Amino acid sequence: MNSRTLTAVPVYNEVQHVAGVIEELRQHVDNILIVDDGSSDGTSDVLRKIDGVRVERHSPNAGYGAALRTAFNFAVRNDFDTLVTIDCDGQHQPHLVTQIAAQLSDPNRPADLVSGSRYLREFEQDSPPPEDRREINRRITACLNEKLGLTLTDAFCGFKAYRVDALRDLDITVPGYAMPLQLWIQAASQNWVIEEFAVPRIYLPEERSFGGSLDDAEARLHYYLSVLNEELERQGMPQRFHANCGNA
Question: Which domain holds residue 33?
Fold first, then answer.
C-alpha cells in the first residue's frame, strides 16, 4: 500500500505569499491542507479562488499552535500516514517536502518525527538570524537537550514530518508560538524517535510580531520557560527549567 502524505500550511495574513507557496507545493505533492487562522488581509479571498486544496478556517485568529492542532486532527481524521507541516512566509522550501517525508520512513531508522533544523549544517544561501531569536533558540534547545535527553540543534523550526499514528497520543493545548515546546515534552515523555533534517536558514526582511509583551526577547524567553515547566508538571515529569537554563 502506498503511503498517504498530507502537507499542511498554517496561514495568517500571508496574502503576498500564499498563492506562490501553493503553486510550488503542487509541483511536488498531491494533498495540501491550508489552515487559514483568521486572516484579515485578503488571504482568505485569495484562497477562495484556488481550487484543489482543502482549507480549514479559524474565526477569529486562534494562534499558530491552534492551527497546527487543526492540521494534526485533520490528518488523523482522514487516515493519512504522514503529515508534513511547512510555514507560508517563504522561509521553507516546498521542494524539500518529499525529502523530509522520506526520512521519516527510513528503513534503517524509522522515526515518529523528523524536524527541520537551520543549524544542523551550513548552506551557501544561509542568511544570518535575528540575534535575539538565535539566542533564545540556542538556550531553549540546550535546555531541552539537557533536561529531556534530546539531541536537537533547532527547537523552533516549523518544517516537520510526523508519523500520523503518533499524533493520536498528543494533547496540544498551547495555542500560540510556544506550542513546539509542549510538543517536545510530550514527544520525549512518549519516547518518540526524533531525527533532524537540515534546511537552509532563510530570514525575510519583514518582522514577525509575537504579540504584545512577547516582542520583548527577555519576556519571550521567560514565557517559553513557563510553558515548559507547566507542561513538565502536567506530564508528571520531575525536571524543571530555570532562568539560567541553557546559559552555559
Answer: 5-128+150-209
Q: What single-letter amino acid sits at 13?
A: N
Residue 95 maps to a domain: yes
Structure confidence by residue, pLDDT tens digits, 30-49: 999 999 999 999 999 999 99
The total domain count for the chain is 1
Strand segments, DSSP code E, in 32-177 are 32-37, 54-58, 82-85, 113-117, 160-163
Q: What is the CATH number of the domain that holds 157?
A: 3.90.550.10
Q: How far apart, in whole angstroms, are the C-alpha atoms of residue 13 and residue 88?
A: 10
User: Measured between alpha carbons, how far is 174 from 16 in angstroms, rounded to an integer?
Assistant: 27
Burial of residue 49 (number of CB atoms within 10 Å: 0-12, 13-18, 19+): exposed
Encode 105-144: b = buried (16+ Cβ within 10 Å), e = exposed: beeeeebbbbbbbbbeeeeeeeeebeeeeeebbbbbbbbb
